[in-house]
Amino acid sequence: MHPSLFLAALCLGIASAAPQLNQSLDDLWSQWKATHGKLYGMVEECRRAVWQKNMKMIMQHNREYLQGKHSFLMAMNGFGDMTNEEFRHMMIEESQKESGSLLWFLAVEKYIVTFIICFQGRCASGWAFSATGAIEGQIFRKYGKRVSLSVQNLLDCSQAEGNEGCNGGLMSNAFQYVRNNRGLDTEESYPYVARDGPCKYRPEYSAANVTAFQTIPRREEALLVAMKNMGSISAAIDASLDTFRFYKGGIYYDPKCSSEDLNHGVLVVGYGFQGKESDNQKYWFVKNSWGTDWGMGGYIKMARDRNNNCGIATRASFPIV
Ligand SMILES: *[C@@H]1O[C@H](CO)[C@@H](O)[C@H](O)[C@H]1NC(C)=O
Ligand SMILES: *[C@@H]1O[C@H](CO)[C@@H](O)[C@H](O)[C@H]1NC(C)=O
């Protein structure tokens, strides 16, 4: 199908399911479009409907926050014109690609079309950011040297280890790649372009070696021990909920967040607590890769010792350099 026909069909589907446009939000919508440099043309109305639905959900959540029903705030951000389904295809991985081949095919079409028209430069590369962050941390711990490593190198070159570039991957496969490859280029020599391309690794620009990696037993106590001994740790989480997409501050906890359905890679860089530790206000301090507009300057506090919420301890690992 021609891309513009497909998008028109997609927009009809969204708009018919969406509420009437609320004129009291017109100014906010204009501001938001200007802030994020959005130009839509014929698809503006359906994007507005999606944005408005998200905006209302965020306002409702924050009203409930003020009533003490949640431990964290949400805020509108640059992901506000996407449905949850679109966001999942754009920024996070499919955890169950094999389920339903026809649905999957449609999802891919939708992904490509939306990607080209509205959201160029988006890529499910959390796993690669998590892996480079963990390797950089271990190099600093061991050699006292700060290096910035190439995310794109991992996206383009670790297919043989089982990764799929912008479609997703595992941090452990990335560590394995660096080990097999006997090197990983610097960010400066191999910059991030957020789309798949041919492997352009050049050994003369390598700044890292990995000799092995360790996976951590799937318990939050084990994650804490590993952090105390090793510093930053790579973790896979469920990042698919709207509460996570629009997180702004406070301690993130959502009972709907899965401990098994993991779809995004992050870097756990610290831990702490607010108030009294006994109040269950403990958190993991986590670095995400969705830019500094998201969350607390790009970081999130995620609930700690609350039943492995979002699977933070389910598949955690670190490299040995
Ligand atoms: C429009 O949105 C405002 C702000 O959320 C709300 O107070 C108002 O009730 C809404 N109006 C309609 C018709 O939905
Ligand atoms: C990685 O290890 C190889 C030897 O296996 C060595 O020649 C190279 O200098 C190392 N690279 C870095 C950045 O330490």
Commentary on this structure:
The protein has 321 residues and is α+β, with helices and mostly antiparallel strands. The chain has one domain (88-320): Cysteine proteinases (Cathepsin B, Chain A, Alpha-Beta Complex), CATH 3.90.70. 39% of the residues lie in helices and 13% in strands. It contains ten helices and eight strands. A six-stranded mixed β-sheet has the order 1-4-7-6-5-3. A hairpin with an 8-residue loop joins strand 5 (264-273) and strand 6. Helix 6 packs across helix 7 (151-157) and helix 6 (126-143) crosses helix 8. It starts with a helix and ends with a strand. Mean pLDDT is 87; it is low at 1-9 and 96-121. One 2-acetamido-2-deoxy-beta-D-glucopyranose binds at residues 182, 206-209. It is found in: Apical cell membrane; Cytoplasmic vesicle, Secretory vesicle, Chromaffin granule; Secreted, Extracellular space. Keywords: Cytoplasmic vesicle, Disulfide bond, Hydrolase, Protease, Signal, Thiol protease, Zinc, Zymogen. Residues 1-17 form the signal peptide. It is a peripheral membrane protein. It catalyses: Specificity close to that of papain. As compared to cathepsin B, cathepsin L exhibits higher activity toward protein substrates, but has little activity on Z-Arg-Arg-NHMec, and no peptidyl-dipeptidase activity.
